[in-house]
UniProtKB/TrEMBL annotation:
Transmembrane segments: none
PANTHER family in the record: COBQ_COBB_MIND_PARA NUCLEOTIDE BINDING DOMAIN-CONTAINING PROTEIN, P-LOOP CONTAINING NUCLEOSIDE TRIPHOSPHATE HYDROLASE
Residues covered by the CobQ/CobB/MinD/ParA nucleotide binding domain: 4-179
Entries under Pfam families matching the protein: CbiA
Top-level lineage group: Bacteria
Listed CDD domains: ParAB_family
InterPro entries: CobQ/CobB/MinD/ParA_Nub-bd_dom, DNA_Partitioning_ATPase, P-loop_NTPase
Name of the featured protein: Chromosome partitioning protein
Regions annotated as coiled coil: none
Length: 214
């Protein structure tokens, strides 16, 4: 089983949307997938309760209690963890000890950039990350037209010496589908396929699968 942690200390950066999108993409590809909700807001748990029985199957795990962390069925191929905002100390070590990769979404705003820089610095103090055993992947999320070219955004990535793996456009489809317990990877119409393709580099980074996605 490969475990993917979705984490950032900044609220509203699109963490849960990233978690459900990645999990659905993997399930649509035919993998056995579970989502572990470790956030007390229970956003992922609420989403899965709305999910239709006809949608791609995704198992749900409640990891809000620290004693539950690590509990997952052995037949799962991919486990996606929706982390709480305040990931620090022993809790952070515990979640990261379960992870093969960390996906950190952030939006092109001053507050997101400042908070994410602090978060990444704290992550690098964790032994398992220092040793290079966990890959950190940045997702530039809810990016409006031309904002990716803003000097502030470019300067930020230059300072942290890491570029986003993907730039995800702001689309109303994410919120509309989430209300139904769905994600863009549950849809097959062309307008959704164009959105799905934005996630391809991230999917390529977290899995080894040379077959065609779209």
């Amino acid at each position: 089983m490969k475990t993917i942690l979705i984490a950032n200390q900044k609220g509203g950066c699109g963490k849960t949307n990233t978690a459900i999108t990645v999990a659905t993409a993997l399930a649509a590809k035919g993998y056995q997938v579970a989502i572990a909700d470790a956030d007390n807001q229970k956003s992922t748990l609420h989403w899965t309760k709305q999910r239709p029985s006809t949608a791609f199957k995704i198992m749900t795990l409640d990891w809000r209690n620290e004693k539950s962390i690590g509990e997952a069925p052995s037949h799962i191929d991919y486990l996606v963890i929706d982390a709480p905002g305040a990931v620090s100390g022993e809790h952070a070590e515990q979640l990261i000890s379960e992870s093969h990769a960390i996906i950190t979404p952030l939006q092109p705003s001053f507050f997101d950039l400042h908070s994410t820089k602090s978060f990444l610095k704290r992550l690098k103090d964790i032994k398992r990350i220092r040793k290079g055993k966990v890959e950190i992947l940045l997702v530039a999320n809810r990016v409006k037209y031309n904002s990716a070219k803003s000097p502030e955004f470019q300067e930020f990535f230059k300072k942290i010496e890491q570029e986003p793996v993907v730039w995800i456009s702001e689309r109303s489809a994410y919120g509309q589908l989430a209300m139904q317990g769905l994600s863009i990877f549950d849809q097959h119409q062309k307008r959704y396929l164009d959105i799905q393709k934005q996630w391809q580099p991230l999917l390529d980074a977290i899995i080894e699968d040379e077959t065609k996605w779209f």
